[in-house]
Amino acid sequence: EMPRLSETVGGVLTKKGKYVLEPSLSYAFSDDNRVFVDAFTFLPAIVIGLTDIRQVKRHSFFGSLGLRYGLTERLEVEARVPYAYRADIQRARPFSTGVANDQIFNADGHGLGDIEFAARYQLTRGTGGWPILVGNLLTTLPTGKSPFRLKTLDVTQIDPNNPVEPLSFRFPLEVPTGSGFFTFQPSITALYPTDLLD
């Protein structure tokens, strides 16, 4: 007989005819300092060109609702619908300008993320000292906002050290909620059940 973890789980997957509803919520914060150098040097201490210093703070909230359903004792399918909210605070300053010339741009957005579909099939029963092998296939649809199609704002600033060539900066006005492409991810999971009780 296949090992059973609970009344709703047959083997290591969802029991036939049963479903599992799984909500989740997460938050992430990141703070990055970035330096872009588009220049050349002829001495270690002398740089001629554009140096751009940016600080980017990012707040991200992710919520999702997943549904797993057992088609058979060995096969389950899953669908997961995510929702994302992200806020970016970006501060930029050309290296040759003063503190008062900082440029701050805020971009935030929310919306549907990339919807996921998954199927899992239990290949072995885990008897005779063998592990339980589960084959997985995960597919992601690009239903979220693509990072390659965001609205941006181009800002031009006069460099006091080089008035002939103005400095150009590009700031995003939107934030992505998806990856922008399809994904297909096959994998195999190995589980080894043990009993530590005598």
Structural class: mainly beta
Q: What is the terminal separation in angstroms?
A: 21 Å
Mean pLDDT: 80
The quaternary structure here is: single chain
- Separate helix tally: 0
Form type: elongated
Biggest β-sheet, characterized? Answer: 7 strands, antiparallel
**What level of helicity do the residues show?**
under 10%
Give the total of beta strands.
11
- The value of Rg in angstroms is 26 Å
* Poorly predicted parts: none
Descriptive tags:
single chain, 198 residues, mainly beta, seven-stranded antiparallel β-sheet, elongated
Brief synopsis:
By secondary structure, this protein is mainly beta.
Give a structural overview.
By secondary structure, this protein is an all-beta fold. The protein has no helices and 11 strands. The strands form 3 sheets. Strands 3, 4, 5, 6, 7, 8 and 11 form a 7-stranded antiparallel sheet that branches. It has a two-stranded antiparallel ribbon with strand order 1-2. A hairpin with a 2-residue loop joins β3 and β4.
